Amino acid sequence: MQMRLILLALVAVLVFSLSACMGGEASTGLDPKATQKDAADGGNEKEEVNLSVWLMPNSADTVSDFLDITKPYTDQNPHVKINATVIDWGAAWTRLTSAATTGSAPDISQLGSTWVAGIGSMGALVDLSDKIDGDKFVDATKQFTGIRGRSEMYGMPWFTETRALFYRIDACEKAGVDPKTDFDTWDSFKNSLQKLNNIQIDGKKLPALGMPGKNDWNVIHNFSFWIYGAGGEFVSSDGLKATFSDDKSLEGINFYVELAVEGLMDHTSLENDTNHIESMYAAGEYCTSFMGPWVITDLKRNKADDGNDIIDKTGIGLVPEGPEGRFAFAGGSVLSVFNSSKNIGEAVALLDYLSGLDAQLAYSEVTGNLPTTVEAYDDPAISGDPYKSIFKEQMKYGKHYASIPGWAPAESIFQSGLSIVWDNAMGIGDVYSRERTKAIIEDVEEELNQLLEENAVELIE
Predict the structure, then answer these.
(1) How many domains does the chain have?
(2) Domain boundary among 280, 312, 329
(3) How does pLDDT run across 284-310, given as a tens digit for each residue?
(4) Pick from 253, 197, 195: which is nearest to 442 by CA?
(5) Which of 2, 16, 15, 84 is nearest to 50 (CA)?
(6) Which of 26, 105, 340, 444 could, after both became Cys, cross-link 16 (CB 3.0–4.6 A)?
């Protein structure tokens, strides 16, 4: 009997040892929950970490939605507590630059894609290039993670967006327009607008194209793909000089505004902003409009909430190809970690989690924006969706503004100049002319060039 007890004891020790080596639980007869509680109460508990996070209004309930997205991470890492604060877009640049220079920054902040280079050039951000796998992100988003010509990664692409062509299927059928081919190039697009203009659907004459004009925060975004499609650029390759008054840039600007001059764009809409245009399209007021991916979410919600079936009458196509190729505006936001953070390791770990498949898809769903990773675009939630899959295709042509420190402060000047161009197109102050457009742009370039030079940094080509 004594020998049997000794053998049983040896077997128990052996089983426990093997289980420990393999990472499993030994069958000891103890309550696992009690064992976990004892471990938590012991000296191995991790010290609590409070991560401060600044966010912009990305969804209907920004903080709650962000905490929901990060809950699986904090459940697995209960020592990490997230304190999220929402900052309005209008105040964010001032608060962030102040925080960057005074050391009062949060651990993590969302940055608009055009702000990364400016704040990164202040030496305020952690270089993530050896901490986050940059290869996981789609190419368009890699354009706004740092300073052009340098290798540092100052922001992890969090979400992105581009503008694609929404069109009414029924209007196209009635006008004899084939969306699969007739929107493909600038010339065929314009020809299609001429066929669609004032087509009568459900007793209403629909303008061919509805877009916001100068009273909108997206003025420069809506001009960008026309400028790029003509082979133009906003700034020179060294980032020191504005170039959007050169012939190619002007070709793109002129083509776009003259859609309005020729009556193919709704003039009433040009007095309004993006939100109004999206609402008008949802109300069935336009044949076409260039809009972001969040509109898909809105249109689906409209159908679920009140039976509005515009989503069923909507198709989405790529931005038309210009004389120098197809280019689409690419923007979005990154998440950056500040050097002043006392919790850099935990902050980077949270960013890494937010670049994972589940978090990327979940945040895309709640915000209506696009994910940033190759893995997410390959998921059926994007690639298998008849609407979102078009945005996946268009991201291949995505082009971001020059990622240079001077861009963020210069953007408002670009915006102002293009707003005056809209005045010219609408005949405000004088009769429209291309010469007047060129003069307007040349007038603002002196101010732009001074600002770009003041904010320049040495580029490593």
Answers:
(1) 2
(2) 329
(3) 999 999 999 999 999 999 999 999 999
(4) 253
(5) 84
(6) 26
